[in-house]
Write a structure and sequence with these properties.
Blueprint: H1 3-27, H2 34-42, H3 50-56, H4 63-69, H5 76-88, H6 91-100, H7 107-128, H8 135-162
């Protein structure tokens, strides 16, 4: 393995870590106030239960997407932001993980990693009460990461074939 390739892997790993921190902040810790989270975990979290979270959860595939598509959401810019954010926000994961860690280059390993990450975020929201479990988010996040992986795969194939 060349030194330049190892350097690219190290840079990709650092960018991946930074990306995961930003992603966690945007998905789980949406509020900018540290005081809010201190108060939430000191007081409100004690009254929260996972069963309450399941009652708010969307477990029906494409329900939220259909609501947005049919215009039942009052704020269309919010709907577009939510849909595109869930899709585009995970594309970097599909590119950075196999670039940083070559073990994840086979499609099945990458797909498992994608599912684990996306489901992990949804379950974290469910168990902490800091968000709502939505199967549509899981679908969009997974599709976004798969698009990223396909971009990585295509670029890697083109590089080996023509360079």
């Amino acid at each position: 393995m060349s030194k330049s390739f190892r350097l690219i892997q190290w840079i990709a790993a650092l960018v991946l870590l930074l990306y995961l921190v930003v992603l966690t902040k945007n998905i789980v810790f949406k509020k900018d106030s540290v005081r809010y989270y201190k108060q939430y975990f000191a007081r409100d979290y004690k009254r929260y239960s996972v069963s309450k979270g399941w009652r708010k959860a969307n477990t029906i595939p494409f329900r939220t997407i259909n609501l947005y598509y049919r215009g039942y959401q009052h704020n269309n810019s919010n709907a577009t932001y939510n849909l595109l954010g869930n899709l585009l926000g995970f594309i970097p994961f599909g590119i950075l993980l196999p670039l940083a860690i070559s073990w994840f280059r086979p499609a099945i390993r990458m797909f498992v990693a994608i599912i684990v990450l996306c489901l992990g975020f949804e379950m974290l929201q469910l168990y902490t009460g800091l968000g709502i479990f939505d199967v549509d988010d899981l679908i969009l996040n997974t599709v976004g990461a798969v698009i990223g992986y396909l971009c990585f795969f295509l670029f890697n194939w083109l590089q080996r074939r023509f360079f």
